[in-house]
Amino acid sequence: MLDSVEVTSRVGEILTSHKGMEGALLPILHAIQAEFGYVPQAALPIIAQDLNLSRAEVHGVMSFYHDFRENPAGNHVLKLCRAEACKSVGADRVAAHAQKALGIEWHETTTDGRVTREPVFCLGLCACAPAAMIDGKIVGRVDEAKLDGILGGLK
Amino acid sequence: MKIYLPLDSAAVALGADEIATAIRAQHPDATLVRNGSRGMVWLEPLIEVETPAGRMAFGPMTPADVPALFGDLAAHPKALGLTEDLPWLKAQTRLTFARVGVIDPLSLADYRAHGGLSGLERALGMAPADMVTEVTNSGLRGRGGAGFPTGIKWKTVSEAKADRKYIVCNADEGDSATFADRMLMEGDPFTLIEGMVIAGLACGATKGFVYIRSEYPIAIEVMQKAVEIARAEGVLGARVLGKGAAFDMEIRVGAGAYVCGEETSLLNSLEGKRGIVRAKPPLPALEGFLGKPTVVNNVISLASVPVIFEKGAAHYKDFGLGRSRGTIPLQIAGNVKYGGLYEIAFGLTLGEIVDKIGGGTASGRPVKAVQVGGPLGAYFPRSLFDTPFGYEEFAGKDGLIGHAGLTIFDDSADMLEMARFAMEFCAIESCGKCTPCRIGAVRGVETINRIKRGDAAAMPILTDLCNTMKSGSLCALGGFTPYPVMSAVTHFPDDFSTQKEAAE
Ligand SMILES: Cc1cc2nc3c(=O)[nH]c(=O)nc-3n(C[C@H](O)[C@H](O)[C@H](O)COP(=O)(O)O)c2cc1C
Ligand code: FES
Questions:
Q1: N or C: which end of chain B has fewer CB within 10 A?
Q2: What is the pLDDT along chain B (504 residues), one digit of tens a residue?
């Protein structure tokens, strides 16, 4: 975990770089998550004060969106598409395989902290489905073997 | 030697970057252009090599196929012939996607050389009211789903009095089976920018936003670079192309909420709020972003504007069927042999699209159902394959064309499971503002689970619940979820009764 001095100073820099922007909260939250890997709770009151919002409002916005995390994810994030086009070619099977291989449900992280498994609803790869994203890298036509290869290659 | 290799997400997801690495290692002198995709996803990664006869296509490529590119091209095991002669491409009418897959997406010179900016040049010689009329006359309707006439929306904004107005491009593209927005932004970003500039000039707006979903990292990167180039080259800025009014724009990134594709939810999100749907009226055209008059248009709606100005409204309007004018980029997806993007005039039948263009299923099994229009669209059985592709024609069959995505399912699909998923998706993605959607979707999942267990009494409850969601929801998330659910029930009754019989 990060100490609060570090959070305060880096969040301050991010806020400065977003000064004057119309509707800056989402870009700020994205920038903070890009910096820390999650949105530290300690950042919320600092953002609130800067944007003249209540802390509850900032928390309300952050918690509305699936992308923003309150806690750090595992070392690797595996997102598997659960939407219709992927389902038509076996996404449920692949998801079940991942669940078994990793021993975790959706949104959970393996006990060794290595992998977090998350659902995503469409990556725009619907003509080369099932689709996945591993640490931001997109993969098409994922089957059980390809998934094993991906998981096996993770450090 | 000049080689084209797509930077398009589908190509990358199938290994394009690894092929780029192999080419650079083996032939550092070759000019490698990372272009958009031609849309033939089953052939991706598709490479093109420039030859005196034209561009030759090769695919689907693997790194092992790279060395042979530097030998006798005609003998290459993945040779497909001249790209322009490929039948799938040749039969299309590419207006909006004319440059996608052809040009270097980030070369403004390439863009100009292929007709780019000529629409804007023409618009600059017109009065704003005439620009709006041009769009109205083209018959263009919103490609984001609702099919609202774009010219009428622009007229409302252009006639509104305000100190600031905005053009907001909806690039949230959350529907399964849709990727046209992504392909356009990755393959020809200047077309979208040009369309937004024309919208700004026509409506008197000086600022534009493109709200792109976070699931599209490549589209975000390409659009950001394109905006910087457009600004540096004077397409954007204090005087558009040195003669017009001011217009500038910004790229914004969503945060994984499907409902933020709904225009009022999107506006709240852009303002930095929770993506809660707003009640209408007021219309965004009058009170949109920060309460100012705002055009909210889909990527494809805006990206179709340049060609309308370049070739004239009449040219565009000449294509199509009934009240569906122009062309539509079909996105053929799911369990399909030839999946990808196919731009064509409205009016083909569903059967022609699925069987002829798509070639049936990838699995080789019979087609059971086609979901048209994304997660809020109806499932069509083979018996409705004679439905022509048009807004009114699909509405007449209790369906919708939405953003023109088609998901094909073979006979292994369980339609009860698909109906249950539609309710589950609605429950996960509901913004929570209205009760029929927030609570109805949760009850919907439970009710379908009861049907699955063989509880016959649950079916009338599901029908009733769907009616409530349809008439009582604030937006089309809750309001249209009944489409996939009830179409599955209506057209595939066996999938909802077998379990029951087994239990009896
Ligand atoms: C739940 C929901 C999701 C939507 N998602 C999108 C989307 O991702 N992209 C889009 O352009 N329109 C989407 N729409 C439609 C928009 O509300 C709006 O009609 C559209 O952006 C207007 O642009 P157009 O007239 O150019 O189609 C969605 C609507 C609903 C109800
Ligand atoms: S449905 Fe999975 S990528 Fe589109």
A1: C
A2: 999 999 999 999 999 999 999 999 999 999 999 999 999 999 999 999 999 999 999 999 999 999 999 999 999 999 999 999 999 999 999 999 999 999 999 999 999 999 999 999 999 999 999 999 999 999 999 999 999 999 999 999 999 999 999 999 999 999 999 999 999 999 999 999 999 999 999 999 999 999 999 999 999 999 999 999 999 999 999 999 999 899 999 999 999 999 999 999 999 999 999 999 999 999 999 999 999 999 999 999 999 999 999 999 999 999 999 999 999 999 999 999 999 999 999 999 999 999 999 999 999 999 999 999 999 999 999 999 999 999 999 999 999 999 999 999 999 999 999 999 999 999 999 999 999 999 999 999 999 999 999 999 999 999 999 999 999 999 999 999 999 999 999 999 999 985 545 444
CA A126 to ligand 2 center in whole angstroms? 4
Please provide the CATH number assigned to the domain covering B108-316. Answer: 3.40.50.11540
Contacts of B281 (CB under 8 A, 6+ apart): none
How many C-alpha atoms does B336 have within 13 Å on its Cβ side? Answer: 31
Residues of A in contact with B269 (CB under 8 A): 26
C-alpha dihedral (B433, B473, B445, A144), degrees to nearest 10 = -80
CA distance B379 to B372: 7
A125 and B10 within 8 Å at the Cβ level: the answer is yes
Contact B429 A121 (CB under 8 A): yes
Cα–Cα distance list, A73 to A69, A70, A118, A135, B40 (Å):
8, 9, 10, 11, 36
The class level of CATH for B415-503 reads mainly alpha
**Which value does ipTM take for this structure?**
0.97
Query: How far apart (Å, rounded) are the C-alpha atoms in residues B273 and B206?
Result: 23
Residue B357 Cα to ligand 2 middle (Å): 20
CATH fold for domain B319-410: Ubiquitin-like (UB roll) (3.10.20)
Report the C-alpha gap between B219 and B15 in whole angstroms: 17
**A101 near A148, Cβ under 8 Å?**
yes
Using DSSP, state whether B57 is helix, strand or coil. Answer: strand
For chain B, which residues make up each domain, given as ranges?
Answer: 2-86, 108-316, 319-410, 415-503
CATH of the domain spanning B2-86: 3.40.30.10
Considering only CA atoms, give the Rg of chain A.
18
- B257: nearest CB among A25, A29, A66: A66
- Tell me how far apart the alpha carbons of residues B310 and B169 are, in angstroms, rounded to a whole number: 21
